[in-house]
Design brief:
By secondary structure, the chain is mostly helical. The protein is built from seven helices and three strands. A three-stranded antiparallel sheet has the order 1-2-3, with no helix packed on it.
Length: 171
């Protein structure tokens, strides 16, 4: 049985967003319906006010700041992934937290500061293969698993991270 949740975020269009997921935790990410790096716009006017966003349900902006902080702790210790990142990780942490908060229904801080996410284009300068994708996903899922959120929210986020990381592969 599938599950669809209204999610707000960067749509660039009027209306709300619906993210649908089929299966349970650990299911095949190809069973999820989303646009990588962006929400899938749907014409469900009014539903944004009826159901709390994932951003609201997980505790708001601070949740994403903490998730990103935990993720980067893993990245800093990873000898194969760390060289892909700049020496100063702080700007990247701020950008990732702002992007994720926006994507999951929070303020549009990321787009106001940096414009359209253009995830694939922004990651093209970095050599990302299956090995780098898998390491990134492992660290992000470990960070996510360390957070106190419901299984439903964790599953939606994990599926998004897996499919988006796969989309970033460029070699």
């Amino acid at each position: 049985m599938g599950m669809c949740l209204p999610v707000t975020g960067y749509t660039g269009q009027k209306g709300s967003t619906v993210l649908c997921k089929q299966g349970g935790r650990g299911s095949n990410p190809s069973n999820s319906t989303s646009v990588l790096g962006m929400n899938t716009p749907q014409d469900n006017a009014g539903s944004q006010n009826e159901v709390a966003t994932i951003y609201e349900r997980v505790g708001g902006y601070q949740f994403f700041v903490e998730l990103v902080e935990r993720f980067y702790q893993f990245v800093e210790a990873d000898l194969s992934l760390r060289p892909l990142y700049p020496e100063d990780l702080e700007p990247g942490k701020a950008h990732l937290a702002a992007f994720l908060a926006q994507y999951w229904g929070g303020p549009h801080r990321y787009s106001l500061e940096r414009g359209h996410p253009r995830l694939r284009q922004r990651h093209m300068p970095f050599p990302i293969g299956q090995k780098e994708r898998d390491a990134w996903v492992t660290h992000m899922v470990s960070a996510l698993d360390s957070m106190e959120i419901s299984v439903d929210e964790a599953t939606l986020m994990e599926d998004y991270f897996k499919s988006t990381a796969t989309f970033m592969i460029n070699r």
